[in-house]
Amino acid sequence: MPIVIHGAVAGVADPVSAWPAWRARSVLIDVSRLIWRWWTGRLPTGIDRVCLAYMAHFGPKARAVIQWKGRRIVLTATDSQRLLAILLSGNPGFRARLVMVLGRALPRAVAIRLQPGEVYLNIGHTGLDDPGLGRWVERHRLRAIYLIHDLIPIETPQFCRAGEAERHVRRMSNALTSASGIIVNSQVTLDGLRDFADRRRLPVPPAIVAWLAGDALPAGATPPPADRPYFVTIGTIEGRKNHILLLRLWQRLIERMGDGAPRLLLVGQRGWEADDALAILDGCVALRGIVVELGRCGDDELARLLTGARALLMPSFAEGFGMPVIEALHLGTPVIASDLAVFREIAGDIPTYLTPSDGAGWERAALEFCGASPDRLRQLAALRGYHAPDWPGHLARVERWLATLG
């Protein structure tokens, strides 16, 4: 399971030698989410990529925090570096290496004493629903900085697992009341957080909008050989991603075009609230060989697939950011996406926008994009001057803002 952070993070100025003045204050970085993800053998999601980027940047002078059964364990500096190296490498044997490192590190962690004013970074929403996290921050007088990715479970609970809306209310409430500062990935997310705070009469700490990187995938990839046009959609197969629209669309295309129908590549692991979509994937014989499910797809292969695609398709009902949109545009691939405020914020007028319920419109666009449609040519022309947000820019913006917090 190779975990690679490409030039986006590698391009950051040497984080050890070019340490900003505010960093005289010790930094604690929460690695709990990544430990769990790698332990279970999961490929990195968008949130995982953000955690990796922060860990690669802040990690060289940070100590690791692990949340376990309501406890927060802070490792020594030396043990933290050993753990961070394992998490960033993602080499085979992760479990054995983790057990060996933690077996030595946890007894030493008992003697750790935190100092008031240390900065605690929680980038993956880990443990935010536990009020004990806020009490831990307050007891040790830490300066907690959280990155909030979305309010989707609160705003569109119908697309989330049972109980997730209530858990997310606790996450956002605890974050607002215990944070010294909040990073958000989009203005849309910040607006949603402020609306939530207003309704709950909660304070809003200092906050900054910092778009996420669009160059996690390697540029310059060679497209795979293809015997027909194909499209790609990226994301966990769950209700809000609206895979059902694409699957029904492809059923119609196959009825209409037979073996001449374009391919659809579904990149993402199976999730929740998507029973109808999964039933079609598992039961519709006509889709086999035309609609291809890629539950595990590494960065290099994804870059190749996106580079050769006629377009990235993103018919989501809700998103907090939309990293696949940025990644596709970065690689020069046109995008057909739902007309969401966050997509317009991060991608402007480049994509072709459709409502997520307009099946006929999506079908028409897919057929047109199989050839030299004017709208696809428009996007290709616009992409020649496109510059995606990157990790050096994101992290520099966050560093400057952190310095203003005192």
Task: Please provide a written account of the structure.
The protein has 406 residues and is of the alpha/beta class. The chain folds into 2 domains: 7-213 and 390-404, Rossmann fold; 230-383, Rossmann fold, CATH 3.40.50.2000. Helices cover 44% and strands 14% of the residues. The chain has 17 helices and 13 strands. Helix 6 (131-139) runs parallel beside helix 8, helix 10 (243-257) packs parallel to helix 11 and helix 10 (243-257) packs across helix 15 (359-369).
Q: Give the number of domains.
A: 2
The share of residues in extended strands comes to 5-15%
Rg from alpha-carbon coordinates: 22 Å
* Count of distinct strands: 13
* Largest sheet strand order: 3-2-1-4-5-6-7
Return the CATH architecture of the largest domain: 3-Layer(aba) Sandwich
SS class: alpha/beta
CATH-defined topology of the largest domain = Rossmann fold
Amino- and carboxy-terminal Cα gap: 40 Å
**Secondary-structure element sequence?**
HEHHEEHHEHEHHEHEEHEHEHEHEHEHHH
State the helicity in percent bands. Answer: 40-55%
